[in-house]
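Milestone M4 deliverable, item 7.
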Amino acid sequence: MPQPPSNTRRGGFVEVLLLAVLIVVLAVMGMVLIKRQAIGDWWRLRGYKPPADIVQLANEDTMTAYTRHLFYLNKPELLGTVTSFRSQCPENASTIVLGCYHPDQDGIFVYNVPDPSLAGVTQVTAAHEVLHAVYARLSTNDRNTLDTELENYYKHGLSDSRVAAEVKLYQQTEPSDVMDEMSCTFGTEVANLPASLAAYYQRYFTNRSAIVAYEQQYEAEFTSRQNTVTADDQQLATQKLHITDEESTLSAELSTIDATQSTMNNLLAANQPAAYNADVPSFNASVDSYNAGVNQLQADIAAYNQLVVTRNQVAGQLTTLDKALDTRLTTQTTR
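Output delivered:
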């Protein structure tokens, strides 16, 4: 029986080998496609060593390993001047912003607020911005689920008027990113959330209450002073009414004293000393009462003026705090 040429057997072996190589190549390519995000992250983070202040922020915000990974992936920076901060966060230059996240995990920048009274701002801002990075990597299903929960809480559970005002501002300034902003705002500023939302944030911060405490800490610097100014204004209004009443009363008393004195002078002119002398005790009592009233009025005016000084000092502190958070380029360049 005739035998096949020997090179036919070698050709079959080569085909099998090529098929095996092709399978391996396809498998590698498939693995690369599956792991492309991890590979891209590794490439971006190669040789990166986070600065000490950035590590401290991650620690203070109690970021989980995954959150810390995204935070470092964005190579976050704390910027201490308005000019340097706005060079990285130029959008909304006429609006006060304290941080920004660049899409596609391309950077997180946080304004390092200089006023020590506002300690906690940078921690809250860093947590807010890294939640943008988290939101960007959610799957479509996870994002839709989260958006539904956020919307439901906003419409039916949110009771903090300040946070609600923030959302309304986002609706005006960033209508296409409202859900993203809500995810960041609720996670860093609302203490009590529904169980489903609390569980969501638990994946990214081991102690979210620490972040909310930072927010409450620096907000208290504003609210305590604003409450003081409001209380002082109310007290000043009451004191002003009292002073006006005192002035009116003293004016009436002075008119009576002047009339009495005129009558007494007429008695002297008519040579009626007995009648004149009879009016002297009551006249002197009226003068003493009037002088006491004047002294009291002067004391009340001094107290009023002192409260104005104190009130204005606290109002000045509020202005200073506001300026410390003011990153608007339009304001800074005209100062």
